[in-house]
């Protein structure tokens, strides 16, 4: 194995990602080294690049990956070198109170160490420049040729699932599953509105279809995205500048939808989602917003009309990822159609520029071409 690898390094707010040679990372106790096949391009990374979310530099971003196992650390069983695997963006420690109670989507160490400091759970990074200086990890630091991942977040990938495309199972598909299955508690026959139809929104449409929603109404500012949403299972598409509240009410006999999923993270999309639900309806907030951003909500309506506002960060890693993989392998989830662009590692900065400029219709991936 080589002594170095290529990675796209985030060096500062609003600065281009730089392709650098980093030392080959080494898996420690309970970890594996994955040779990355592909990494998804997510808005959450873009928030870091733009300074909307604080994160230390230098760092390697990228948090939804697929690949093959290149090396196995101590005390890891059940995996083999060369095995095809996929990982979610949430990497559970497996030992904190939330992990032990079945809510590993709320893992304390993931938030306090990884999301705030760019470290794994011994308080250290696995990434270093050739001079020995540390490079921090956003999740596993997937915008690189290799990534170290705790074994709690490594899942076998069946041959029926294409390796590169499987990368988006770890965030876009995973996040959408958590929103629809757990936060929304969707039942067959429910009506659903998806506000913002990017990578997560498109896959929320697919999960809503899988779980039996009777109406799936896609809302976006981009006509091309709405066209793609209809091909992925939306029963109706509404442009947000075309009196969307009246349109959705008309489609639901004046009542509004049972569930509205907000998948962007802005004051405007949250406010719109909250106006689309019927009395007793559920507003599921998925999109990551800029730190400190707030949005108004009418408290009397929350109380008197039973409006439910539920945050959803992701699915349950260790229980849901195997189900997600099984459902996609069996063809019940057409996630592939949401992948609309692909870039090479050397083009990683171009990918996020395109995302910032709203030029990516669905989800883009970065392929680690060697």
TrEMBL record:
Class of this enzyme: oxidoreductase
Coiled-coil features, chain-numbered ranges: none
Names of required cofactors: Zn(2+)
Classification via PROSITE patterns: ADH_ZINC
Keywords from the named record: Metal-binding, Oxidoreductase, Zinc
GO terms for MF: oxidoreductase activity; zinc ion binding
Membership in a protein family: Belongs to the zinc-containing alcohol dehydrogenase family.
Record-given protein name: NDMA-dependent alcohol dehydrogenase
Taxonomic lineage: Bacteria, Bacillati, Bacillota, Bacilli, Bacillales
């Amino acid at each position: 194995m080589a002594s170095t690898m290529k990675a796209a390094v985030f060096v500062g707010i609003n600065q281009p990602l730089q392709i650098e040679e980093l030392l080959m990372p080494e898996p420690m106790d309970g970890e594996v080294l994955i040779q990355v096949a592909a990494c998804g391009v997510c808005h959450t990374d873009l928030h870091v690049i733009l300074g909307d979310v604080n994160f230390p530099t230098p760092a390697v971003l990228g948090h939804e990956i697929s690949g093959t196992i290149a090396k196995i650390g101590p005390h890891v069983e059940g995996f083999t070198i060369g095995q095809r695997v996929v990982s979610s963006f949430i990497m559970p420690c497996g030992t904190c109170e939330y992990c032990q109670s079945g809510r590993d989507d709320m893992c304390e160490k993931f938030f306090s160490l990884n999301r705030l400091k760019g470290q794994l759970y011994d308080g250290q990074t696995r990434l270093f420049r050739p001079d020995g200086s540390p490079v921090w990890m956003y999740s596993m630091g997937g915008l690189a040729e290799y990534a170290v991942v705790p074994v709690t977040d490594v899942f076998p990938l069946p041959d029926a699932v294409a390796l590169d495309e499987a990368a988006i199972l770890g965030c876009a598909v995973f996040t959408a599953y958590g929103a629809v299955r757990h936060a929304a508690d969707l039942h067959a026959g429910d009506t659903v509105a998806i506000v913002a139809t990017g990578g997560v929104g498109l896959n929320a449409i697919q999960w809503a279809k899988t779980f039996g929603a009777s109406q799936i109404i896609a809302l976006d500012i981009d006509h091309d995205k709405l066209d793609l949403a209809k091909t992925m299972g939306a029963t109706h598409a509404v442009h947000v500048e075309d009196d969307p509240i009246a349109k959705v009410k008309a489609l639901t006999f004046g009542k509004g939808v049972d569930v509205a999923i907000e998948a962007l993270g802005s004051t405007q999309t949250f406010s719109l989602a909250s106006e689309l639900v019927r009395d007793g309806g559920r507003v599921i907030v998925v999109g990551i917003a800029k730190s400190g951003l707030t949005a108004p909500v009418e408290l009397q309506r929350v109380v008197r009309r039973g409006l439910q506002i539920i945050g959803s960060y992701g699915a349950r890693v260790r229980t849901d990822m195997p189900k997600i993989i099984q459902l996609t392998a069996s063809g019940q989830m057409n996630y592939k159609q949401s992948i609309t662009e692909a870039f090479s590692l050397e083009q990683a900065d171009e990918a996020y520029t395109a995302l910032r400029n709203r030029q990516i219709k669905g989800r883009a991936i970065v392929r680690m071409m060697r």
